[in-house]
Design goal:
The protein is α/β, with parallel strands linked by helices. Helix content is about 50%, strand content about 15%. The model has no long low-confidence stretch (mean pLDDT about 95). The structure holds nicotinamide-adenine-dinucleotide. It catalyses: 3-hydroxy-2-methylpropanoate + NAD(+) = 2-methyl-3-oxopropanoate + NADH + H(+).
């Protein structure tokens, strides 16, 4: 049986790991938060004492960590995982990080003879729970072929974007658009409500009209419009404001390095930065509606 080390059991990593267990894989898991490890052990995983302990004997190592610094911190350096992972293992990093960072870690892995792909995901916590994520992969096609049996247990769509780092570039472009779309959706709903409309009725109209988008259809930011989304649970869980802010920052970095125009992406970044500065960094990103709507 394929032995999988899974590191990073947060809002996304925990349900992804559970789907691998349901899919018949043997998992050894680690997170800095002990309760997150305990939750996975209750679901059938075995607990590792550390990230290094998790990867001993692993055939596949999966990481789902917050940002570039965490991924580089875990893999690189004298005590990094690249010095501990068995030589035939495949590394799959599903975190959303800077493309340069992904290339740096993949290069270091390759220098040690280890195969690595970047495989950031789209689809939110709902997609992670349902096993319907979209994987956006950068790396060698042969390594993606090895990863496929695992990715298929966690996701529905698997794209090969190109060489190492390409998955991250595509993911960042997607998330910049998501940040813009969520802020725009919040603005449209706030405008309608301020002018006397029922947010549910307006959402139904937009969902069948030309303003239709993922936020209005599947992740509505207005409280009470949709069940089982963060806006109806006090904006708990989901995709944090600070994670969206990180992704918009990555888009800005990529734009600077290529002199690209991202006027709306920069505006969205500023809106999320303002929202975070007001104390909402840990809330789901759809809470941006609170920055916009009138009380
Ligand atoms: P999260 O903050 O809920 O989880 C991250 C987990 O990593 C935490 O449990 C944390 O304790 C753990 N961690 C941090 N450093 C660690 C280390 N050194 N060793 C072990 N564990 C460590 O974040 P999330 O929402 O699960 O997102 C993870 C990644 O997926 C991010 O890059 C995010 O941008 C991306 N993403 C998130 C969503 C979403 O909807 N939440 C959607 C798509 C992509």
């Amino acid at each position: 049986m394929t032995r999988v080390a899974f590191i990073g059991l947060g809002n996304m990593g925990a349900p992804m790991a559970l789907n691998l267990i349901k899919g018949g894989f043997s998992l050894k898991v680690f997170d800095l938060v002990a309760e997150s490890v305990a939750q996975l052990v209750a679901g059938g995983a075995s607990a590792a004492k550390s990230a290094s302990d998790a990867v001993i004997d692993a055939d596949v190592v999966i990481t789902m960590l917050p940002a570039s610094k965490h991924v580089e911190g875990v893999y690189l350096g004298a005590e990094g995982l690249l010095t501990k992972i068995p030589s035939k293992a495949l590394i799959i990093d599903c975190s959303t990080i800077a493309a340069d960072s992904a290339r740096k870690v993949a290069r270091a892995a390759s220098e040690r003879g280890l195969a690595m792909i970047d495989a950031p995901v789209s689809g939110g916590t709902g997609g992670a729970i349902a096993g319907t994520l979209t994987f956006i992969v950068g790396g060698e096609a042969t390594d993606l072929a090895r990863a496929r049996p695992l990715l298929e247990k966690m996701g529905k769509n698997i794209f090969h974007a190109g060489a190492a780092g390409a998955g991250q570039v595509a993911k960042i472009a997607n998330n910049m658009l998501l940040g813009i779309a969520m802020a725009g959706t919040a603005e449209a709903l706030a405008l309608g409500v301020a002018n006397g409309l029922d947010p549910k009725v307006l959402s139904e109209i937009i969902a069948k009209s030309s303003g239709r988008n993922w936020a209005i259809e599947l992740y509505n930011p207005w409280p009470g419009v949709m069940e089982n989304v963060p806006s109806s649970k006090g904006y708990a869980g989901g995709f944090g404001v600070d994670l969206m802010l990180k992704d918009l920052g990555l888009a800005a970095e990529a734009a600077v390095s290529t002199q690209s125009v991202i006027a709306l992406g920069e505006l969205a970044r500023n809106l999320f930065a303002m929202h975070s500065a007001q104390g909402s960094g840990k809330l789901d990103f759809s809470s941006i509606v609170n920055l916009i709507k009138r009380d």
